[in-house]
Amino acid sequence: MFRALLLGFVLLFSNVVQAQYSKTQTRILFLLDASGSMYARMDNDTRINVAKKMLSRMVDSLKHIEGLEIGLRVYGHQFPKERRNCHDTKLEVPFRLGNHEEIKEEIKDIRPKGTTLIAYSLQEAAYDFPDASTRNIIILITDGIEECEGDPCAVSTALQRQGVILKPFIIGIGLDEEFRQEFECVGKYFEANTEEAFRNVLGVVVSQALNNTTCQVNLLDSYGKPTETDVNLSFFDHGNGRFIKNVVHTINDRGVPDTIYLDPAYGYDVVAHTIPAVRKDNVNITPGKHTIIALDAPQGELSLTVDGLMGYGQLQALIKRPGSDKILHVHEFNTVEPYLVGKYDIEILTLPRIKQNDVLISQSKTTTLQIKQAGKLNIVARSSIIGDIYRLNRGELEWVCNIDIDDRSHIIAMQPGNYTLVIRSKREHNTVNTRSKDFEIYSGKITNINF
User: Fold this and answer.
1) Using one digit for the tens of pLDDT, what is the confidence trace for 120-176?
2) What is the CATH number of the domain that holds 240?
3) Are residues 83 and 158 in the same domain?
4) Structural domain tally of the chain?
5) Are 381 and 416 in a shared domain?
6) Tens digits of residue pLDDT in 365-421
């Protein structure tokens, strides 16, 4: 039954618009445990009374936070524990502006009764948020673990992957350290075993839910120093892979990587768009603390040039790692591009193609690869012809390109070397009419062939 409900939930939210979270809109749903165990003692009072008192004060303090909506869901408060009702959860106050007094009044009337149903309550909480276009946050306040055979971890993961909520916050009241493992897969867990601890933890959690904090990304060179810069950085939500923000890395006027402001409610996957890209997954930002994210990104430069003026127009080269067919970059000639330190295979798209393997890029140095300027082959024919050009390479014929000429003159830019042209007139239909001609291409010169 639980799995069917969870599957239905995932399908329902799979079509939610995947918009980037608004910078100004946050929704916080307080999910309060009102199971019978909340009558247990905490200092000189009961857990439920401490929770109600602190939660009411927090709701009061949130009245004037711009762009914030709050709501209240409670579980375990409608049916007695002996009935073990595993659907005993209710949205008592939905999201809307100015509902703070209503929430405080509702909190006053809560009387703990039943069981602890965390998974089902989280699942139902997904429907409490009007949409996924805001920062949707759940703050769960509980003194017990799941008692209804649900899987809070699976529900929380589904909520996050579908972009319905960010990672939930869990405040464990009176729970031992051994219970931490039960909640770490659900969200960010905080322990509160005294009234003072509860007050402090609640303040920390709400602060994390509302405020960005600072970080810097250190792009390390080959010597482990953060000197690399001018690289685009992308930040993604580790929970569901959704894009969050882009920045162009810079070194500030103090000579250190500049500050980036991030929402600590996320776990991040960080990608530095070097060639090839460098990434670090599941980076957590510590609220209120300047976090340093280090990525190994040592770079040098590659310059591709042509020796002379006669060329191929917009000549390009394919850049690959040795032993790999994956194209990392298409490099335009007469430009300089940065690459990570290491060796690369370079395939230059001349006729015929030029391959340079194991080209070394070194830290902060420019490796220059220069090729001879092209020569040109000018074919003049009285009629349309078809055929091929071959290169004489170490005594063997190596195919270079096809020839299909309908006009009287055709010019091809080629690398210097010895070649053979094999053709036949399109008007002839006998192989005996095939003709061949050897020729040589010289750098910066034109070779004419007449048929």
Assistant:
1) 999 999 999 998 778 899 999 999 888 998 999 999 988 888 878 878 999 998 776
2) 2.60.40.1120
3) yes
4) 4
5) yes
6) 999 999 988 899 999 888 889 999 999 777 788 999 999 988 678 889 999 999 999
Alpha-carbon gap, residue 252 to 254, rounded angstroms: 5
Residue with tokens 């010597």: 223
Write out the residue range of the structural domain in which residue 426 sits: 375-450
Strand (E) or helix (H) holding 236: strand 232-237
Whether residue 220 sits in one domain with residue 304: no
Task: Kindly report the backbone phi and psi dihedral angles of residue 55, in degrees, each rounded to the nearest multiple of 5, phi listed first.
Answer: -70, -40
Q: Are residues 67 and 157 in the same domain?
A: yes
What gap in Å lies between CA 451 and CA 449, rounded to an integer? 7
CB atoms within 10 A of CB 421: 20
CATH number, domain of 165, equals 3.40.50.410
Burial class for 112, CB neighbours closer than 10 Å (0-12, 13-18, 19+):
buried
DSSP 129-166: SS-SSSEEEEEEEESS---SS--HHHHHHHHHHTTSS-
DSSP symbols for 171-182: EEES--GGGHHH
pTM: 0.68
Shared domain for 195 and 217, answered yes or no, is no
| Integer CA distances (angstroms), 445 to 56, 303, 372, 412, 442, in order | 87, 25, 12, 12, 5
Q: Compute the distance between CA of residue 45 and CA of residue 64 in angstroms, rounded to an integer.
A: 30
Token representation of residue 232:
């685009």
Residues 222 and 197 reside in one and the same domain: no
Tokens of 225: 């120093």
Instruction: Mark which of 269, 296, 323 sits at the end of a domain.
Output: 296
- Would you say 141 and 32 are in contact if contact means Cβ atoms under 8 Å apart? yes
Using only the alpha carbons of the chain, give its radius of gyration: 34
